[in-house]
Amino acid sequence: MDIFRLIQDIKTHLKLSFDEVDRWFGKDEKILNDLPANGGWTIQQILEHIYLTNFYLLILIEKGYKKGVRNYLELDLNSEIKNYSFDNERFEKVGEYGAFEWIRPEHMEPKGELNLSEIRSLVAQQYQQCLGYLDLMKNGEGLLCKTTMTVNELGKINVYEYIYFLSLHTQRHLTQMKNNESETIKN
């Protein structure tokens, strides 16, 4: 496995996802706050949910990073890199809106406590955090810690895969926001 290629691919995916999210903050007030007919979240609520989910995923990513660095002293990184293969198919459904039922924890539901500019600033900081972890784990250290991910039965995933999951989760909600916008424009 070319770990450097994997890291670059994740960085590229993050940039595309976060750049697209950032564009939503400049949308018209009506588009941002129109309730969809299905009773789902407004676009502003979705943006807050993305921030909240990233917040909690980044806690796990930080713990995984720290454990991976500790494991560096005990595990054979070269062997881990050699034996690792990224299974993209396992993750693809995560980025598809509506591909499977997703019951999120209550603490990841938007509460409306942050204004749009605060959410935008926090999401931009989260993007930088992701890039920072990838830079800190530039030699493959992210393979040295695995944590269970219950969403879509992914099972044990490494720190790089957690960061990719975060980006895919964002992508999932980009589709939802596009659907909301289309409905608002039609009405």
Automatic annotation (TrEMBL):
It holds the Pfam family DinB_2. Residues 32-177 form the DinB-like domain. The lineage of its organism: Bacteria, Pseudomonadati, Bacteroidota, Flavobacteriia, Flavobacteriales. InterPro entries: DinB-like, DinB/YfiT-like. Coiled coil: none annotated. This is DinB-like domain-containing protein.
